[in-house]
Amino acid sequence: MATSQLSASLRNLPAFERFQPSALRFPSVRNVRIATLTQTSFPSLVVKATATVLAPKHTSVKPLGDRVLVKIKDAEEKTEGGILLPATAQSKPQGGEVVTVGEGKSAGKSKVDISVKVTGAQVVYSKYAGTEVEFNGSKHLILKDDDLIGILETDEVKDLKPLNDRVLIKVAEAEEKTAGGLLLTESTKEKPSIGTVIAVGPGALDEEGNRKALSITPGNTVLYSKYAGNDFKGKDGSAYIALRASDVMAILS
């Protein structure tokens, strides 16, 4: 009934030319019902979590093969100066504590153990490696042994013990002036790709499961691929990078 009256009253549109929209009233329209959204209103809406959450009945995870289970270190919530960081500005953690390891893998006729044998060891891993899982109220990462960069025996990055074919390099400082003496801002300084080797890993595995020693040694000044590896900052403010030996292009002398 209300719908037919409303249609009839709007047939003669010129009659409403002098009325403001706020002056219109529809007294015959009563009991207007505003529908509420139900759970089935959007059947295709899916919300994805950032981690796979295991059911409460699962209290342990046993990695298989050459995989390692690492408890992720919490992201830094403050800068060194004490400024609180929003979640979007907090750097993604690249380190954690080894919880348990797999049984290793086969290479040729040999059985190769996981590089990290000590439960509780503090490790650094590739930034975007592994699969994140959450259980017992903590975030963990399941990743391959080859994704482990090194072992941190102290809280100093310079003491990182590289694993496999990784190399730890102290990055040369960026040039602060151009050849003509013009001062450079931080955003215009070119990212260095030269540094001094601090430590090297035992080498990559060959098809028979044997380690092949690296041709790079600590103390070498090297030129490396510009956008390779994982960057770290030492407590003294120095920049370090850990990368694969194959990303080192030349030894400089």
Using brief descriptors, characterize the structure shown.
single chain, 253 residues, mainly beta, 10 Kd Chaperonin, Protein Cpn10, Chain O, six-stranded antiparallel sheet, 1 helix, 18 strands, 3% helix, globular, 20 kDa chaperonin, chloroplastic, Cpn20, Chaperonin_GroES, protein-folding chaperone binding
Any overview of this molecule?
- It holds the Pfam family Cpn10.
- InterPro entries: Chaperonin_GroES, Chaperonin_GroES_sf, Chaprnonin_Cpn10_CS, Cpn20, GroES-like_sf.
- A hairpin with a 2-residue loop joins β4 and β5.
- By secondary structure, the chain is mainly beta.
- The termini are far apart.
- It is built from 1 helix and 18 strands.
- Among the domains are: 67-76 and 91-152, Roll (10 Kd Chaperonin, Protein Cpn10, Chain O); 163-252, 10 Kd Chaperonin, Protein Cpn10, Chain O.
- The protein has one helix spanning 2-9; strands at 52-53, 67-72, 95-101, 105-107, 110-112, 122-125, 131-135, 138-144, 148-152, 160-162, 166-171, 194-200, 204-205, 211-212, 221-224, 230-233, 239-244, 248-252.
- Mean pLDDT is 75; it is low at 1-19, 37-49 and 85-90.
